[in-house]
Amino acid sequence: MADPCDEPRERVIELAPGRVARLAVLLLAPVIVALAVADSIREAYYGPTRRRMQLTVEKQAYRPGEEVRIYVKITSSILGILWETPVGGAPVGVEVRGRDGSLVYVDQGATDAQGLAEFFFKLPGNALNTEYVVHAASPGVSWEEAFGVTRE
Amino acid sequence: MSTVHGEAGVAMKRLLALTLLLVSVSLLFQYSPVSANTYPITITQIRTLDSQGTPRSSFARGATAVIEVTIQAAAYGTSVSYLLIVEIFDSNGIVAFIGFVSDSVAPAQIKTSGAGYSIPASAPTGTYTARVFVWNGWPSVMGPSWEALAAPGQTTFQVT
Question: Would you state the CATH architecture of domain B41-159?
Fold first, then answer.
């Protein structure tokens, strides 16, 4: 004698995977395409959009005379953090100032194919025992990060 | 039943192919502005002069080195406001001087400006490097609106 629960179970297993997959593709694909196309057209006509910059200073504290290394990564996102791609060839401007506004270092570079740009400079031996701020900018995005100089 | 599955499969494949095609085209659109980095200003010449305006490549400590920069705007477009920065690195690679000037340049116009660096008597001797940048403003001020208006330029001079 057959189990009365067998038939409904089979139906559920047969229907669910195919329909869910079709529904997912039919609903998500047009949304993804629409977002991607809209974002790209906006970027093509109005300049860089939805770019993200990661600015990293190698260390939080340096001693006078040490080399400060600054890393910049620029990515472009179409679906937030779900779809990020590196932006190569983007110009990057870097400006480092002391807390008193004094200019310490400027530089200009461009990101490589991985979206990375690296900057480095030597602190003078008489660098002030204070906090410095790195300002980095590229069309469509900017960021700032601080580091300190200690004589101890 | 198998016919329905077959048709659905073909439809899904077509939809996926169309999605991939459109995404590829959109990515091409997305990267075209970045790869086409054309600057509105060109640094045409960087010279080092003494305080009398005579071109020199070697300076004694205590003297003034003038970094003269000539730029030219592109023939198209409108007048461009710019920030011209001269940064000098001493022979140890340490920033010794940063000078800047703000101005504007009309299409096709050529402009020359200079920054004077008084070399301290205690400055290290050797090869110094002057780097020149032309931006639309400071990154700290312009933020995401910052733009480089020219490819950077540089020259070297000796300090004896």
Answer: Sandwich (2.60)
